[in-house]
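Posting this for the archive.
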Amino acid sequence: MKLKHMYFHPASKQENNETVLCSFEKKGIPMEKIQSALGRQKRHIASSNSTETSLSMGIEAAKGVLKQSSISIQEIDIIIFVSSTAEHLIPCDSIYIHQALQGKSETMCYD
């Protein structure tokens, strides 16, 4: 198996790190050094009142990588979905991605 294409679909809401930095600083945890080492000034957030979820963003990322790579969903033999905030345990989220993309029936789905 060879990974040839990747696609990133972030949540649409962006926040700067000020709130997070301040909360850690109040606890005596210096975060400024960590932020400068990571180099990330903004974070993408899927807020609790948003319709964006790990699954919806996974579906959009899958559509994006198929479009970007000019690969048909019919050429895909396995869909693997990984998230620390999965929406479903059974059936797994990769099955929902498979359905949204209209994958072939023999495609393996794995979370």
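The mean pLDDT is 85. The first strand starts at residue 13 and ends at 16.
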